[in-house]
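Appendix B, record 7
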Amino acid sequence: VQLQASGGGLVQAGGSLRLSCAHSGFTFDDYAIGWFRQAPGKEREGVSCISSSDDSTYYADSVKGRFTISNDNAKNTVYMQMNSLKPEDTAVYYCAAEFGPCGDYGLGPESDYYGQGTLVTVSS
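Structure tokens (predicted):
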């Protein structure tokens, strides 16, 4: 199983970024795939998740209306479009996968798999 995250960078507040998670080694139909983030001094937060097993998505309250997760089956890639970015969105973002649905709190390091993170920095 491989999860390769990319797309992080430095952006000004109000700007946008799109993160990509290229996945391989498992069937998306069986797994939920999503993002969690970790910022220094803050608790880990499940950000978004998408699951085909129950056709559901999950978003943390802090990103609802600003972030959108989507899946491209042909490319085995999950995307997270991040708009209206805020300085508090600054964190390392990790792509993760969990067998089954997204759950009530999204995914995290306790999920079945997660890859190396990508750093998102939002300047004020």
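Remarks on this record: The CA atoms of residues 60 and 89 lie 12 Å apart. The chain has no helices and eleven strands.
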